[in-house]
Amino acid sequence: MHAMRLYLINPSNPLVSMVKFKESRWNRYRVWKPLSLMVLAGLTPPEWKISIVDENLGAPDYPAMPRPDVVGITAFTSQANRAYEVAAYFRRLGVPVVMGGIHATMCLDEVMEHVDSVVTGEAEGIWPQVLEDARHGSLKRRYDGGLSEINDVPLARHDLLATGYALGAIQTTRGCPLNCSFCSVTAFNGAQYRQRPIPDVVREFQLIREKYVLVVDDNLVGTRPDHIARAKELFRAMARANLRKEWIAQATINFADDEELLTLAAKAGCSGVFIGFESPAPEGLGEIGKKFNLLKGRDFRASVRRIQRHHILVAGSFIIGLDIDEPGIGKRIAEVGRQYGVDNLNVLFLTPLPGTRLWERMKSEDRIALDAFPEDWKYYTLTFPVARYKHLSLDGIIQEMISCNRNFYSMPSILRRVGSNLWQRRKPLISLVGNLSFRGNFRVSSKAYADFQRQRGS
Ligand code: B12
Ligand code: SF4
Q1: 141: CA distance to ligand 1 center in Å?
Q2: pTM for the complete prediction?
Q3: Where are the beta strands (DSSP E) in 82-196?
Q4: Is 84 exposed, middle or buried (CB count within 10 Å of its CB: 0-12, 13-18, 19+)?
Q5: Could you identify the atom of ligand 1 that is nearest to the CA of residue 38?
Q6: How far is CA 263 from the centre of its chain?
Q7: Residue 16 predicted with pLDDT over 80
């Protein structure tokens, strides 16, 4: 049996790539490992010779590369256009192309037009079958992996990607019960919070070469007491294994409510968390279905401080463009970010992503402004306004975003924050790099907004 050659490709993202390194050296921090492809490689039988191609590291010279037997492509919605170009190239050569991931699942009919075979859902239960069919020349047009058995998630192939990324990546849980209206996670990974076996996670951490790691879980600690208990077990096991890694993760604000959890997280190497505050107004949280943040008596500033006391940095995420948002919202978010005391602020435009409740609602209200698909998918990065917002025009909302970032990332503000980190001995260097990186990226974004406005003729 001759070895079969498989390319697993992460199409370049229009806004995020090393090619744009010239525009801002902070771009390095925007290029992340495509973990999906490393997991697929982990599921692939040994008779396949696998290459993972991450176009974000630089444009590959496909004609100079050996012809593969099969190509697998992953894509977020924003990468769909480039995914179709890559698919067309390999199909012209007669190489069968399979596409999977979030966009393929949410926009099945569109994707079917561009590739030979589509895999919807999680891949663990189905990928070996897809490859077997490909080997026999009998690929089906469509496969559905549904939700995987969490114990079947293999160790990702961390050895297959080039070094040079700022962070390694690992996943320890899947699924989220909160089902916020703008997010595709509950629709894609289900409402049940599924946890990988702790020994697998520890073993996989040991395979990661990078010192700094992104834990990609949507919520590393979960929301229920049994979730928290598991997180504590995981952190204990990580500390025992003496991994010598520093990691960042996403969590809900209840992370702050348990001192033991925070102590264990810090011991296990946690150096920062992303927390979705989403809106400074309770009505905003109601609007997007993030009622979890509305729990009575929550003092966000005190919660943030409790986390920071464990030398863990807090990045706060907000959304701009809710129906309740009026002119002035940008400055308001910057003020609230400062008031909560977050170390970094990450603000994104409300974006109807296919497959979400927000998409259904905006579509039915004819509020999707950028809808020349697939071309317009490139703007679905959450860094462009793509909808008709209630009280803000396209130009107006961009101005709000600019005023928010100008305000929060002014040099005096950065120096004040980093100064206080220095004073509290709370990772001042990482905080400085984080703040400068956000500031640098903001400059790239401002240029992108100008191009966007020019192209839209506004
Ligand atoms: C980590 C993460 C990031 C990281 C790293 C991104 C990266 N390059 O890996 C960062 C923070 C950089 C990021 C950025 C963005 N992200 Co993001 N991110 C995630 C997150 C939390 C986890 C992704 C992950 O690694 N999962 C683990 C792997 C193993 O799972 P998986 O990717 O789903 O892969 C499985 C299946 O999908 C399938 N599969 C995937 N690809 C393929 C291919 C083939 C051939 C086959 C057969 C199967 C298959 O098999 C895999 C194993 O089961 C998801 C939410 C989520 N839970 O998925 C959001 C998510 C993917 N992100 C999202 C978005 C919108 C973005 C951004 C566009 C906007 C933003 N600012 O957040 C940017 C784009 C940046 C970029 N580089 O492209 C959306 C995507 C929705 C959509 N329709 O596109 C998600 C779903 C969250 C949400 N809000 O709904 N993200
Ligand atoms: S935004 Fe976060 S909390 Fe809300 S559904 Fe998505 S993953 Fe869950």
Answers
A1: 23
A2: 0.95
A3: 97-100, 117-120, 142-144, 168-170, 173-174, 194-195
A4: buried
A5: 29
A6: 26
A7: no
